[in-house]
């Protein structure tokens, strides 16, 4: 359990934390390869090999998260393709109840994501989550991905917070490691970012099956009766 009286700021990731990562995994590993294969008249396996190679070259960098970069490199309208698949965007279970519960506390709630601004705007449009947040921080505006130590220094400088009184939930373990290096005290991973994939083992950090695990004021009976 979390002592919410000891927390001033909550930082929440978007994809894989608030939203089901299945959308992004399906998009990049199924939808884009099919579009790329059709455009170049190649088989889907060949397209996958080509794309996975390109993905790995920039994985974890700002380019990896940049829709403009991929539109340019692949010759595809990535934003439009994401809109075409928008019916697959879904909020993870119990997220809304958690956000509502935080609004009953004196908490500075911030969305902090590596997603490109165009992707953020699209997902906020389809989910309606934006009003819950005091601010939405995009790593592209900061100038470094969340996995990089400099992201946290720059975030602290531009949007001050006390790391000792800050809680972060993120499905990316490299992000949690970088935040830990900056002194963020309360760190939580996600056991199952993609609802269509198995629950993963997480040993390095505390992890959540759902936000019920740290829901302010929740009682066990509330969970069992739902």
Pick out its properties.
226 residues; alpha/beta; Rossmann fold; six-stranded parallel β-sheet; 6 strands; 12% strand; disordered C terminus
Task: Outline the structure in words.
- The protein has 226 residues and is α/β, with parallel strands linked by helices.
- It has 2 domains: 152 residues, 3-Layer(aba) Sandwich (Rossmann fold); 65 residues, no CATH class.
- The chain has 10 helices and 6 strands; from the N terminus they run βαααααβαβααβαββα.
- A 6-stranded parallel beta sheet has the order 3-2-1-4-5-6.
- The longest helix has 19 residues.
- The C terminus is likely disordered.
CATH H-level superfamily of the largest domain: HAD superfamily/HAD-like
Distance between the termini: 20 Å
Strand order of the largest sheet: 3-2-1-4-5-6
What is the level-2 CATH architecture name of the largest domain? 3-Layer(aba) Sandwich
Summarize model confidence as the mean pLDDT: 94
Figure out the total of helices: 10
Overall shape: it is: globular
The percent range for helix content is 40-55%
What is the fold-level CATH name, i.e. the topology of the largest domain? Answer: Rossmann fold
The topology string of helices and strands comes to EHHHHHEHEHHEHEEH
- Domain tally: 2
Low-confidence stretches: 219-226
In terms of structural class, how would the helical and strand content be classed?
A: alpha/beta
Strand content: 5-15%
CATH class of the largest domain: Alpha Beta
Radius of gyration: 18 Å
């Amino acid at each position: 359990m979390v002592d919410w009286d000891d927390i001033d700021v909550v930082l929440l990731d978007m994809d894989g934390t608030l939203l089901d990562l299945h959308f992004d995994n399906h998009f990049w590993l199924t939808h884009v390869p099919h579009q790329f294969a059709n455009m170049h008249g190649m088989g889907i396996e060949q397209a996958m090999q080509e794309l996975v190679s390109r993905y790995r070259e920039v994985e974890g960098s700002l380019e990896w998260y940049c829709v403009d970069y991929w539109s340019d490199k692949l010759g595809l309208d990535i934003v439009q393709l994401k809109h075409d698949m928008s019916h697959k965007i879904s909020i993870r279970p119990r997220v809304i109840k958690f956000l509502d519960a935080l609004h009953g506390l004196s908490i500075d709630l911030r969305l902090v994501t590596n997603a490109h601004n165009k992707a953020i705007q699209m997902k906020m449009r389809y989910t309606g989550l934006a009003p819950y947040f005091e601010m939405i921080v995009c790593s592209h505006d900061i100038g470094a991905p969340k996995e990089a130590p400099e992201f946290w220094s720059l975030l602290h400088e531009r949007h001050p917070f006390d790391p000792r009184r800050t809680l972060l939930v993120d499905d990316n373990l490299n992000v949690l490691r970088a935040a830990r290096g900056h002194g963020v005290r309360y760190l939580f991973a996600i056991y199952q970012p993609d609802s269509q994939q198995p629950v993963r083992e997480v040993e390095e950090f505390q992890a959540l099956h759902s936000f019920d695990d740290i829901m302010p004021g929740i009682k066990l009976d509330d969970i069992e009766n739902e």
